[in-house]
Structures are given as structure tokens and as C-alpha cells.
Design goal:
single chain, 342 residues, mainly alpha, globular, disordered C terminus
Length: 342
């Protein structure tokens, strides 16, 4: 029965990854369309020799532009509502160590999206599919599951480790955000890392939130609370709710900024790095658990490395879905920029 629940959690995590990546892909397409039409409008309102190249290079996309785009809102609903719900469900079943890693397998949606538009797979993508199957096997075989129902979230030592983990991640987020303001050639990768760090932060805080909301938050083997603990339990719940909501929304925002200045082929694998690295840290440091088998740590790291390879392979396919449609390419902004500079 326990093994069946574990396999169910693995399946839900993979489905969550597919939905999240599909939503991200749709949002990226919407952002590119918004940038394209804004550049096109800017050029049409000015003579070719009066085009401000700096404005063209840094087109501003406002929140209003995003929420009024039906395509972007579709991606947002898939990512922030359906995908997040499935992700939380997977967390309750297999914990925060394996869920984000297995969710990365959702990158395979890029491959199947290409098949829908009658594009053949390349040889490296066939290899990527085989590698992905191996990654799923290794992560499942590692058996490094975190049972939230057996975690004492109120233990002082545990709360100190949570504070250290969260504080370190937030400091890295602040550093990446400050660096992105430099608007240099590292702006895109820095924003992608920032989005990944926010996911790594969310990976933990979804745990106590779901534990409380689901009624499995327990102390000393008891699923109820003593009267004097109600205050700290409520405080913990609202803090976790704050981190879940803010990190989720901020992740969407930072990912859109990364997509605006960088291509999916590089932004997707870079954004997955922090969440991958957070998995063993959560398991070994924050929850202070021991590997169930001698081979568990090795299997987990091997699976994470294979997933990184897959994200690089399938990320290249994502770059093909960034571009405007065929008829738009013929009248592309880049062509007009060339004519404006001559």
C-alpha cells in the first residue's frame, strides 16, 4: 500500500511537471508575441532613421500587457493553478525532496509539442528520452521520500535549520535581483537562477502549509495540539502561506523577465539548477534524514545529473517555440533594424 502511494506520488509529480512546463511554454510564446508587436508598433510610429535602438533592445512589458493577453493568462492558469495544485498533491505523497526533481521530467512536453506540428525528433532528443527514463528509475530507486506526517515542524532545532535554509536562499535571491539591474549579458541567466531559487524556497514551505491544511501537522506522534501551541501553529501556517503565495507569484514574474531577455534553450535548464540542488539539501540538512539505503544518495545525484542533461537537450527544442509565426518572420523586426541602421 505504501509503495502504491509512492508510485502514485511519482506519477502526480511528473504530471505536475508536464502542466507547469506547458504553462511556461505558452507564457513564453505570449511574451515573445507582445515584444514583437510592441517593436513593430514602435517602428511604425517613427521614421526608420529615427528608431531608438535602445528602446527596441529593452521593450517594456507591463503587468497590464500580460493579464490582457489571453494566451499568457492560459499559461498562467495552467502553471499557477493546475500545475501548483498537482505539485502540492505530489508533495503530500512523496515530500519535497523528489517532487521538484521528478517535475523536471515535464520538459518532455517540448518534444511532444514538436510532434503535434509534424516536426521530427532529432537523434539527441531520442537519447534524451532514454536518459529521462533512466533518471525516473534512479530517483524512484533512491527511495529518498520525506514523510510530512512524521515531521515535527515545531521542534526548535528544526525551525533553526529552516531559518538558515530560507535565509540563505533569500540572500541569494537578493544578490541575483541586484545583479540583474546591471542589465549586462548575464541578466537573463541571473533572472533564471532567481526564478529557480524562488522555486527552491517554495519547495520547503509548501510542506508545512500542506501539512497544516491537510490536518497532518503533528507533534510528538500526536495529530492534535496542546492549547498553548495554537499560537505558534497559526503563526507557522500564515508564514508558510505567505511564502507559498509570494514565491509562486514572484517565480512567474521573474521567469517572464528571464524569457524577455534570454532564450528558452538556456533559461529553462538554468532555472532548474537551484531546485535540483535543493532536493538533497532539504533531505539531508533541513529534515535531517538518513538515506534509507547505501545506494540512495548515489542514485539521487545520478538522477539529478541525468535530469540536467535532459533539460539542456529539451531546452533547445523550447527555443523553436519562442519565435513568431512564419508569416511574422518574413516581416521580422530584425530585418527592419538592419534597414534602419543602413
Amino acid at each position: 500500500m505504501v509503495r502504491l502511494e509512492f508510485l502514485g506520488g511519482v506519477a502526480v509529480a511528473i504530471i505536475a511537471g508536464v502542466v507547469l512546463n506547458l504553462g511556461s511554454l505558452i507564457q513564453k510564446k505570449a511574451v515573445n508575441q507582445l515584444v514583437y508587436y510592441k517593436k513593430k508598433r514602435l517602428i511604425s510610429l517613427n521614421d526608420e532613421d529615427q528608431v531608438d535602438k535602445d528602446k527596441l533592445a529593452h521593450v517594456h512589458i507591463s503587468v497590464k500587457d500580460l493579464v490582457t493577453s489571453k494566451l499568457w493568462m492560459l499559461g498562467f492558469i495552467l502553471q499557477a493553478v493546475m500545475g501548483a495544485g498537482l505539485f502540492i498533491a505530489a508533495q503530500t505523497m512523496i515530500g519535497p525532496s523528489l517532487t521538484p526533481a521528478l517535475g523536471s521530467i515535464g520538459l518532455v512536453v517540448l518534444v511532444f509539442a514538436s510532434c503535434i506540428v509534424d516536426e521530427r525528433l532529432t537523434w539527441d532528443e531520442y537519447i534524451g528520452l532514454i536518459v529521462m527514463i533512466g533518471a525516473v528509475f534512479l530517483l524512484g530507486f533512491s527511495d529518498m521520500v520525506i514523510n510530512l506526517g512524521e515531521t515535527d515542524f515545531l521542534r526548535k532545532a528544526f525551525m533553526i535549520r529552516v531559518a538558515v535554509y530560507s535565509g540563505a536562499v533569500m540572500l541569494l535571491c537578493a544578490f541575483c535581483k541586484a545583479w540583474s539591474w546591471r542589465r549586462d549579458r548575464f541578466e537573463g541567466p541571473t533572472l533564471a537562477v532567481l526564478a529557480g531559487l524562488l522555486v527552491a524556497l517554495q519547495n520547503y514551505w509548501i510542506g508545512p502549509f500542506t501539512a497544516l491544511a491537510g490536518g497532518i501537522f503533528h507533534r510528538k506522534g500526536n495529530f492534535t495540539f496542546e492549547h498553548h501551541e495554537i499560537g505558534i501553529v497559526l503563526a507557522y501556517f500564515f508564514v508558510s502561506l505567505f511564502f507559498v503565495i509570494v514565491s509562486n507569484l514572484q517565480t512567474v514574474y521573474e521567469r517572464q523577465l528571464a524569457f524577455r531577455v534570454g532564450g528558452a534553450a538556456t533559461m529553462i535548464p538554468i532555472s532548474h539548477l537551484p531546485s535540483h540542488l535543493s532536493s538533497p539539501i532539504l533531505f539531508s540538512y533541513v529534515f535531517e534524514l538518513h538515506a534509507p539505503h547505501k545506494y540512495s544518495i548515489g542514485c539521487m545525484w545520478a538522477g539529478l545529473v541525468l535530469l540536467l542533461i535532459c533539460s539542456i537537450i529539451f531546452g533547445k527544442r523550447g527555443a523553436q517555440f519562442e519565435k513568431p509565426d512564419a508569416e511574422e518572420k518574413e516581416d521580422s523586426v530584425s530585418t527592419k533594424l538592419i534597414s534602419a541602421s543602413t
